[in-house]
Amino acid sequence: MPIRIPDALPATAALESENIFVMTEHRAMHQDIRPLRVLLLNLMPTKITTETQILRKLSNTPIQVEVELLQTVSHDAKNTAAEHLETFYTTFDEVRDEHFDGLIITGAPVEQLDFEEVDYWDELCEIMEWSKTHAHSTFHICWGAQAGIYYHYGVPKRALPEKMFGVFPHTLAKRTSPLVRGFDDEFFAPHSRFTEVRAADIEAHPDLELIAVSDEAGVYVAKSTDSQNFFVFGHPEYDRETLKAEYDRDVARGMAMALPAHYYPGDDPAREPVATWFSHAQLLYTNWLNYYVYQTTPYDISRAGERDGEEEASW
Fold first, then answer.
1. Which residue is catalytic, options 51, 66, 99, 142?
2. Domain membership flag for residue 8
3. Which of 134, 149, 232, 278 fits a disulfide with 155 by CB distance 3.0 to 4.6 angstroms?
């Protein structure tokens, strides 16, 4: 089914060129169904790239998805044109009285700072608190996952001796979870971070459960037992070239960077990277939208965020 986004958004042309069903606003208005409303809080500096990557993953869903883009006002975005932000992004003050079926909070390249040192931390905390009553389910990515699991459950992030960087094999800690329905016993996912959240800290919390882990990269997916919060500590949305772009950028800055692990054939950066994570990345987003948003969100959007705690807790 289609994803509904503004006709002029740069991602629209990119997705249509990939034969992804993007519905125009005019056509969507004439369909007699209620779309899922998903709010995307984009904290990444490369906002157009990130919004395109995530919209691609949201496109293969069981119902029409209407995405609204959210930015923080307490941080000055220097890598995205002000015109793009003014045209396509909203602010928290503009949506605080609205309800959403899903909320996605992206990563951000700030994991080496303490949470409280991040200039938009107070605003992010306000949004995460608001999500408890205004979003049916929230999907946190990478640093966004570290921030969310710390804010909601007090689980700390810990510094790594070196950057966790590459594409790593993972296994399922809870095979019965609908979130990973269709996953192979071993699957791959990209990571790019200087900090981690440890499995032992998650397992010690009665309101959290592990879903997928890696012997090399550590925790990949965890969730709350009430299925309101999902935490993905890697970057399943990454394109084939994203890790390469990060590596080339850091080398150009004079940083001593190891090659991204399990990424270049023969560890040769002159060769094209091999994408080994696309199918499981798509499944992860599709399963979240289907089983934890579409199947359980109230039809009356004004009730999104209300919890009955029964069906969700069993998953």
1. 142
2. no
3. 149
